């Protein structure tokens, strides 16, 4: 049996389970009966529904019963651990309750199927089915507390380390804060929490290490205090359970520096107290924190006490320091050696608990001899062939040292080349690029020709410097440019002056004209009449324009009434802000009063073209009004007769 409790499936709460089961029944056996059907067909249909519900519940409860370990079947270590953590009676009661409910539900289904056989109408059959499902659900509802408890147990079990009771095991125990977890961290990859206060470790933890080509599990336990069994709390009891049941090498850790805040006397008392649990098992007393205080530095009385314990109990002992690493490997080796020795006296069946895989592994290991090289403490001198002694010439290394050492001197490797003709040894190796020999492209007198070219260029430069005509031409050009610039500036300034001197035209107004005419002795009444006539005409024109615009807005908003000027102004502003498309359609509705510009016509054509395809297909567009169905018929008919709000 593998003790991997992570595979236990989650336990549903009773309420969820009822929902799932009823939904499944509804889905798998949909209602397909009518009053006109033959009664045997109606009976058969409802019987099927009841049986289906019972089978689903049976299945669900069976998975729970199979997944949870039975205390009588599992290793006593796990049985005791479950007892310590979850209380054996409570655990058994919960599983028993679930089991009993399964039987009750089976019986309910059987009874109602029998009654359904005598159902004389669709209504009676339906009511019987309803009663059967109702009773089954009520029975399930009573499981609420048991199912919740089982789910909590499952969560805790899934977090428990996978300890194999039949594997080679080192079990670390002792007072809290003595360095147990530090040791397990040092020899395995468990990465446990280490803190300078007691009861850091509150559960069992497991790490793995290799020794002698085999995997070993190292179990870290919570610290144990020195008091009677009945006073021990569940945290300590986990350690006691492991000590009692696992066939492991027990490593009792004793902090001789007393920095764990427990004296040596207290620790010895605990050791003696736990002694019955170590019976018939390999035991190693480990003195820790020797970096703070060594055994030899202890008080002679304490030393004597420890010696007495070791001699009287006949135990092996060792010392280590988790800080400096001193003695850790030795302690591990010693503990593993002790357990191996002890296991040799046991039969393979006892060690493996009848597990065929472990049994095979064990028998192979017992039959295999692993040869180890003998380690003799002798010095191995370098072996130099005798021929080397006879040679009387410097070695390559000597040559290198003489010529400036490594990096400066490079060995003449050419002398070792094996070529067809030994004369070729020191030939230059051609450099090849893109499949061509670079040497073929080298021009021997290229440098000479380059020099000639450079000389020629120099001579030409000098000849240019000496040419006086060139200077004159350049000077003339510069002068002409200055003259042009000056002239341009002058023209600009003249233009400015002209603009400033222009006389402003004076337009006489009515008053000026009257004065002028009066001076000349002309009657001015006709002037006033003309001015009044113009003013009246202007006012009329203005009113006409306003009237027109109000007509426009009336066409647009038929429901707006009243002659309030301000309101009309607002509406005008509103109509101005409307889109061009709307304006076009309005103008059309007024019987082509407005002549459309070419641009407006183009826009109208484009909008028509866009809408044509959708109009032809007669489909609803994004702009069409849509009312979603508020009461879908299939969800609101049939099944909610007795005041039920939630539908399935
Ligand atoms: N100087 C010294 N300190 C050590 C040594 N081993 C452990 N400690 C310190 O002792 C403290 C407790 O170490 P843990 O390994 O957590 O002890 P524990 O026995 O697992 O404690 P609990 O989990 O509480 O039972 C830590 O602060 C360690 O740093 C050691 O060899 N030398
Ligand atoms: Mg610890």
UniProtKB/TrEMBL annotation:
| Record field: compositional bias (Basic and acidic residues) | 562-586, 617-631
Q: Which PROSITE patterns match?
A: G_OBG
Question: Which Pfam families is this protein grouped with?
Answer: NOG1 (PF06858), NOG1_N (PF17835), NOGCT (PF08155)
Identify the keywords attached in UniProt to this record, alphabetized.
Answer: GTP-binding, Nucleotide-binding, Nucleus, Ribosome biogenesis
Using the record's annotation, list all stretches that form the OBG-type G domain: 168-340
- The source's superkingdom equals Eukaryota
Q: What is its main location?
A: nucleus
The keyword Cell membrane is assigned to this record: no
Q: Which family does it belong to?
A: Belongs to the TRAFAC class OBG-HflX-like GTPase superfamily. OBG GTPase family. NOG subfamily.
Gene Ontology molecular-function annotations: GTP binding
Protein name, as recorded: Nucleolar GTP-binding protein 1
Which GO biological-process labels does this protein carry?
ribosome biogenesis
What InterPro entries does this protein map onto?
Answer: G_OBG, NOG1, NOG1_N, NOG1_Rossman_fold_dom, NOG_C
Lineage runs: Eukaryota, Sar, Alveolata, Ciliophora, Intramacronucleata
Q: Which residues fall in a compositionally biased region of kind Acidic residues?
A: 551-561
């Amino acid at each position: 049996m593998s003790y991997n409790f992570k595979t236990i499936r989650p336990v549903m709460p009773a309420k969820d389970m009822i929902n799932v089961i009823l939904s499944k029944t509804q889905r798998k056996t949909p209602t397909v009966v009518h009053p006109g059907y033959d009664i045997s067909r109606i009976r058969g249909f409802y019987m099927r529904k009841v049986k289906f519900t019972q089978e689903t519940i049976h299945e669900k409860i069976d998975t729970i019963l199979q997944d949870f370990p039975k205390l009588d079947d599992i290793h006593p270590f796990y049985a005791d651990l479950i007892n310590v953590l979850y209380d054996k009676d409570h655990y058994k009661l919960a599983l028993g309750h679930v089991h009993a409910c399964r039987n009750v539900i089976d019986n309910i289904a059987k009874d109602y199927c029998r009654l359904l056989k005598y159902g004389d109408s669709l209504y009676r059959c339906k009511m019987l089915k309803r009663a059967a499902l109702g009773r089954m659900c009520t029975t399930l509802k009573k499981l609420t507390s048991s199912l919740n408890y089982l789910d909590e147990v499952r969560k805790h079990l899934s977090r428990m380390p996978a300890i194999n009771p039949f594997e080679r095991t080192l079990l670390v125990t002792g007072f809290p804060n003595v360095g147990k977890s530090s040791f397990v961290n040092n020899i395995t990859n468990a990465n446990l929490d280490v803190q300078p206060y007691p009861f850091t470790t509150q559960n069992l933890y497991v790490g793995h290490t290799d020794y002698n080509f085999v995997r070993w599990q190292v179990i870290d336990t919570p610290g144990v205090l020195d008091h009677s069994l009945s006073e021990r709390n569940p945290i300590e009891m986990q350690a006691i359970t492991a000590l009692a049941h696992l066939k492991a090498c027990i490593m009792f850790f004793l902090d001789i520096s007393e920095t764990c805040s427990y004296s040596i006397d207290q620790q010895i008392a605990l050791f003696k107290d736990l002694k019955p649990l170590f019976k018939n098992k390999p035991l190693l007393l480990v003195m820790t924190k020797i970096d703070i205080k060594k055994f030899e530095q202890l008080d002679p009385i304490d030393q004597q006490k420890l010696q007495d314990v070791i001699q009287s109990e006949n135990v092996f002992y060792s010392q280590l320091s988790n800080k400096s690493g001193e003695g850790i490997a030795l302690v591990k080796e010693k503990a593993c050696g002790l357990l191996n020795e002890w296991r040799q006296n046991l039969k393979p069946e006892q060690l493996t608990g009848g597990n065929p895989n472990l049994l095979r592994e064990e028998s192979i290991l017992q039959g295999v001899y692993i040869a180890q090289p003998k380690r003799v403490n002798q010095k191995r001198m370098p072996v130099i062939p005798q021929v080397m002694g006879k040679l009387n010439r410097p070695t390559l290394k000597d040559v290198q040292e003489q010529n400036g050492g490594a990096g400066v001197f490079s060995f003449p490797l050419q002398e070792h080349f094996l070529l067809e003709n030994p004369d070729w040894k020191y030939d230059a190796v051609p450099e090849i690029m893109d499949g061509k020999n670079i040497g073929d492209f080298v021009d021997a007198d290229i440098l000479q020709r380059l020099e000639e070219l450079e000389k020629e260029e120099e001579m030409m430069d000098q000849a240019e410097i000496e040419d006086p005509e060139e200077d004159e031409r350049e000077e003339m050009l510069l002068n002409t440019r200055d003259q042009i610039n000056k002239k341009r500036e002058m023209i600009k300034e003249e233009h400015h002056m002209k603009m400033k001197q222009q006389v402003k035209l004076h337009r006489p107004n009515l008053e000026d004209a009257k004065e002028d005419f009066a001076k000349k002795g002309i009657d001015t009444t006709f002037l006033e009449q003309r001015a009044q006539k113009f003013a009246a005409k202007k006012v009329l024109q203005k009113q006409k324009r306003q009237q027109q615009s109000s007509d426009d807005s009336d066409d647009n908003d038929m429901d707006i009434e009243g002659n309030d000027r301000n309101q009309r102004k607002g509406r005008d502003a509103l109509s101005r802000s409307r889109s061009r498309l709307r304006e076009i359609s309005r103008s059309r509705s007024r019987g082509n009063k407005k002549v459309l510009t070419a641009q407006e016509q183009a826009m109208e054509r484009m909008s028509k073209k866009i809408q044509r395809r959708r109009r032809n297909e007669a489909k609803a567009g994004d702009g069409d009004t849509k009312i979603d169905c508020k009461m879908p018929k299939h969800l609101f008919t049939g099944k909610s007769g007795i005041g039920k709000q939630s539908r399935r």
